[in-house]
From TrEMBL:
Catalytic activity: ATP + protein L-histidine = ADP + protein N-phospho-L-histidine
A GO-annotated cellular component: plasma membrane
Signal transduction histidine kinase dimerisation/phosphoacceptor domain location: 57-125
Coiled-coil zones: 92-119
Protein known as: histidine kinase
Keyword line: Coiled coil, Kinase, Phosphoprotein, Transferase, Two-component regulatory system
Organism: Clostridium perfringens
GO biological process, one term: cellular response to phosphate starvation
EC number per UniProt: 2.7.13.3
Phylogenetic lineage: Bacteria, Bacillati, Bacillota, Clostridia, Eubacteriales
Broad EC category: transferase
Keyword Mitochondrion (UniProt): no
Pfam families, per database record: HisKA
């Protein structure tokens, strides 16, 4: 469907052949005559299969790395919590300050990993 108001129309299509997916970006450029009527339409098919495959590798990599980082960060946070609760003895002020700094850093890394996971999930829905 061509709308007379649009000069360019873009569409991404997926074609499966022999169990392999191919991706094409299709761009249609409308050429209008003097009366603003469509005279010609130039259509360009661009094979972007390689780009889509790279995008999927990137999304999978980010997801894997994020999950791999989350496990040790959780262990660190649990260890810090056990130490902070004085289960192994009383802590002096300097030790408490160090544990607080560790908690803050681990929380910052946890937030970063959570954001990476969200980005990965959003991108995997688009890829």
């Amino acid at each position: 469907v061509i709308n007379n108001d649009d000069e360019n129309i873009e569409k991404l299509i997926e074609i499966t052949k022999n169990n392999k997916k191919y991706f094409f970006n299709i761009t249609a450029t409308i050429i209008k005559g003097s009366e603003k009527k469509i005279n010609e339409v130039v259509v360009l098919f661009k094979n972007i299969t390689g780009l889509k495959e790279l995008e999927m590798v990137k999304v999978n990599f980010i997801g894997t790395i994020s999950h791999e980082l989350k496990t040790p960060l959780t262990s660190i946070m649990m260890g810090v919590g056990l130490i902070s609760n004085s289960n192994i003895g009383r802590l002096n002020k300097k030790q408490e300050d160090i544990l607080e700094a560790i908690k803050e850093d681990v929380q910052r890394l946890n937030d970063l990993v959570s954001n990476l996971l969200k980005i990965s999930q959003i991108q995997s829905n688009r890829a």
